[in-house]
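Below is a typical protein record.
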Amino acid sequence: MKLKGKKILSFVSTDFEDLELWYPILRLREEGAEVHLIAEEKNKTYIGKYGVPAVSDAAFADVNSADYDALLVPGGWSPDKLRRFEDVLRLTREFDEAKKPIGQICHAGWVLISANILQGVNVTSTPGIKDDMTNAGAIWHDEPVVVDGHIVSSRRPPDLPDYLREFIKVIAN
Protein backbone atom coordinates (compact mmCIF):
# COMPACT_ATOMS: atom_id res chain seq x y z
CA MET A 1 0.00 0.00 0.00
CA LYS A 2 1.83 3.04 -1.35
CA LEU A 3 -0.19 5.65 0.58
CA LYS A 4 -0.46 4.08 4.03
CA GLY A 5 -0.56 6.86 6.63
CA LYS A 6 -1.41 9.60 4.10
CA LYS A 7 -4.43 11.84 4.63
CA ILE A 8 -6.14 13.32 1.59
CA LEU A 9 -8.73 16.05 1.49
CA SER A 10 -11.37 16.09 -1.26
CA PHE A 11 -13.79 18.89 -2.00
CA VAL A 12 -17.41 17.95 -2.69
CA SER A 13 -20.47 19.92 -3.74
CA THR A 14 -23.69 19.27 -5.62
CA ASP A 15 -23.31 18.12 -9.24
CA PHE A 16 -19.83 16.62 -8.90
CA GLU A 17 -18.89 14.23 -11.71
CA ASP A 18 -19.61 10.90 -10.03
CA LEU A 19 -16.68 8.98 -11.53
CA GLU A 20 -14.25 11.86 -10.99
CA LEU A 21 -15.02 11.85 -7.27
CA TRP A 22 -15.51 8.18 -6.46
CA TYR A 23 -12.93 6.50 -8.71
CA PRO A 24 -10.06 8.54 -7.20
CA ILE A 25 -11.36 8.13 -3.65
CA LEU A 26 -11.61 4.35 -4.01
CA ARG A 27 -8.17 4.05 -5.65
CA LEU A 28 -6.57 6.24 -2.98
CA ARG A 29 -8.20 4.19 -0.24
CA GLU A 30 -7.05 0.97 -1.93
CA GLU A 31 -3.51 2.33 -1.62
CA GLY A 32 -4.01 2.90 2.12
CA ALA A 33 -4.85 6.61 2.20
CA GLU A 34 -7.46 8.12 4.47
CA VAL A 35 -9.72 10.40 2.38
CA HIS A 36 -12.01 13.02 3.89
CA LEU A 37 -14.77 14.78 1.97
CA ILE A 38 -15.26 18.43 2.86
CA ALA A 39 -18.09 20.68 1.79
CA GLU A 40 -20.02 23.77 2.73
CA GLU A 41 -21.76 21.79 5.50
CA LYS A 42 -20.61 18.84 7.62
CA ASN A 43 -22.59 15.57 7.47
CA LYS A 44 -24.63 16.71 4.48
CA THR A 45 -25.41 14.49 1.50
CA TYR A 46 -24.39 15.94 -1.85
CA ILE A 47 -25.64 14.36 -5.07
CA GLY A 48 -23.50 13.90 -8.17
CA LYS A 49 -24.54 14.64 -11.75
CA TYR A 50 -25.72 11.05 -12.20
CA GLY A 51 -27.31 10.62 -8.79
CA VAL A 52 -24.50 9.07 -6.73
CA PRO A 53 -24.46 10.50 -3.18
CA ALA A 54 -21.50 11.63 -1.11
CA VAL A 55 -21.67 12.62 2.57
CA SER A 56 -19.30 15.32 3.79
CA ASP A 57 -17.01 14.63 6.75
CA ALA A 58 -16.36 18.28 7.59
CA ALA A 59 -17.10 21.85 6.56
CA PHE A 60 -14.57 23.91 4.59
CA ALA A 61 -14.12 26.39 7.43
CA ASP A 62 -13.28 23.65 9.95
CA VAL A 63 -10.39 22.09 8.03
CA ASN A 64 -6.68 22.80 8.44
CA SER A 65 -4.58 22.07 5.35
CA ALA A 66 -1.59 21.28 7.58
CA ASP A 67 -3.41 18.10 8.67
CA TYR A 68 -3.42 16.71 5.10
CA ASP A 69 -0.88 15.40 2.61
CA ALA A 70 -2.78 16.07 -0.64
CA LEU A 71 -5.84 17.73 -2.15
CA LEU A 72 -8.28 16.15 -4.61
CA VAL A 73 -10.56 18.39 -6.67
CA PRO A 74 -13.18 16.46 -8.66
CA GLY A 75 -14.83 17.82 -11.78
CA GLY A 76 -18.40 18.05 -12.96
CA TRP A 77 -20.36 21.24 -12.39
CA SER A 78 -19.38 21.43 -8.70
CA PRO A 79 -16.09 23.31 -9.29
CA ASP A 80 -18.08 26.33 -10.48
CA LYS A 81 -19.87 26.29 -7.11
CA LEU A 82 -16.78 25.42 -5.06
CA ARG A 83 -14.71 28.32 -6.32
CA ARG A 84 -17.20 30.77 -4.82
CA PHE A 85 -16.16 29.82 -1.27
CA GLU A 86 -13.22 31.76 0.13
CA ASP A 87 -12.28 28.79 2.35
CA VAL A 88 -11.97 26.56 -0.74
CA LEU A 89 -9.65 29.08 -2.37
CA ARG A 90 -7.67 29.55 0.85
CA LEU A 91 -7.17 25.80 1.25
CA THR A 92 -6.19 25.40 -2.40
CA ARG A 93 -3.61 28.20 -2.09
CA GLU A 94 -2.25 26.68 1.14
CA PHE A 95 -1.73 23.30 -0.54
CA ASP A 96 -0.02 25.07 -3.44
CA GLU A 97 2.22 27.20 -1.20
CA ALA A 98 3.27 24.07 0.74
CA LYS A 99 3.88 22.23 -2.58
CA LYS A 100 1.57 19.44 -1.44
CA PRO A 101 0.04 17.35 -4.24
CA ILE A 102 -3.08 18.77 -5.86
CA GLY A 103 -5.08 16.55 -8.21
CA GLN A 104 -7.62 18.12 -10.54
CA ILE A 105 -9.65 16.67 -13.39
CA CYS A 106 -12.02 18.01 -16.03
CA HIS A 107 -13.72 21.23 -14.82
CA ALA A 108 -11.82 21.15 -11.50
CA GLY A 109 -9.37 23.57 -13.07
CA TRP A 110 -11.90 26.32 -12.31
CA VAL A 111 -11.02 26.03 -8.61
CA LEU A 112 -7.29 26.38 -9.32
CA ILE A 113 -8.00 29.32 -11.65
CA SER A 114 -9.98 31.14 -8.96
CA ALA A 115 -7.24 30.37 -6.41
CA ASN A 116 -4.84 32.08 -8.82
CA ILE A 117 -2.20 29.31 -8.74
CA LEU A 118 -1.82 28.38 -12.42
CA GLN A 119 0.54 31.05 -13.77
CA GLY A 120 3.18 29.18 -15.82
CA VAL A 121 1.92 25.74 -14.76
CA ASN A 122 1.62 22.92 -17.32
CA VAL A 123 -1.88 21.44 -17.11
CA THR A 124 -4.69 19.72 -18.92
CA SER A 125 -8.45 19.79 -18.40
CA THR A 126 -11.60 19.20 -20.34
CA PRO A 127 -11.10 21.08 -23.62
CA GLY A 128 -14.22 23.08 -22.71
CA ILE A 129 -12.22 25.17 -20.21
CA LYS A 130 -8.96 25.32 -22.17
CA ASP A 131 -9.41 29.06 -22.75
CA ASP A 132 -10.11 29.63 -19.06
CA MET A 133 -6.93 27.75 -18.15
CA THR A 134 -4.72 29.61 -20.62
CA ASN A 135 -6.26 32.98 -19.69
CA ALA A 136 -5.25 32.19 -16.10
CA GLY A 137 -1.65 31.81 -17.28
CA ALA A 138 -1.49 28.01 -17.49
CA ILE A 139 0.23 26.16 -20.32
CA TRP A 140 -2.45 23.78 -21.57
CA HIS A 141 -1.77 20.34 -23.11
CA ASP A 142 -4.22 17.90 -24.69
CA GLU A 143 -2.92 14.84 -22.83
CA PRO A 144 -4.60 12.24 -20.57
CA VAL A 145 -2.56 13.46 -17.59
CA VAL A 146 -0.05 16.25 -17.02
CA VAL A 147 2.24 16.41 -13.99
CA ASP A 148 3.93 19.72 -13.19
CA GLY A 149 5.64 19.37 -9.85
CA HIS A 150 2.93 18.90 -7.23
CA ILE A 151 0.00 19.62 -9.59
CA VAL A 152 -1.49 16.62 -11.39
CA SER A 153 -4.23 17.30 -13.93
CA SER A 154 -6.39 15.21 -16.21
CA ARG A 155 -9.07 15.73 -18.87
CA ARG A 156 -12.10 13.49 -18.31
CA PRO A 157 -13.34 10.11 -16.98
CA PRO A 158 -11.70 7.90 -19.66
CA ASP A 159 -8.33 9.28 -18.44
CA LEU A 160 -8.90 8.27 -14.81
CA PRO A 161 -6.50 5.25 -14.82
CA ASP A 162 -3.60 7.40 -16.12
CA TYR A 163 -4.53 10.24 -13.76
CA LEU A 164 -4.60 8.08 -10.65
CA ARG A 165 -1.36 6.26 -11.50
CA GLU A 166 0.42 9.62 -11.63
CA PHE A 167 -1.40 11.23 -8.70
CA ILE A 168 -0.56 8.24 -6.47
CA LYS A 169 3.11 8.48 -7.50
CA VAL A 170 3.27 12.18 -6.64
CA ILE A 171 1.57 11.65 -3.26
CA ALA A 172 3.84 8.70 -2.41
CA ASN A 173 7.04 10.70 -3.00
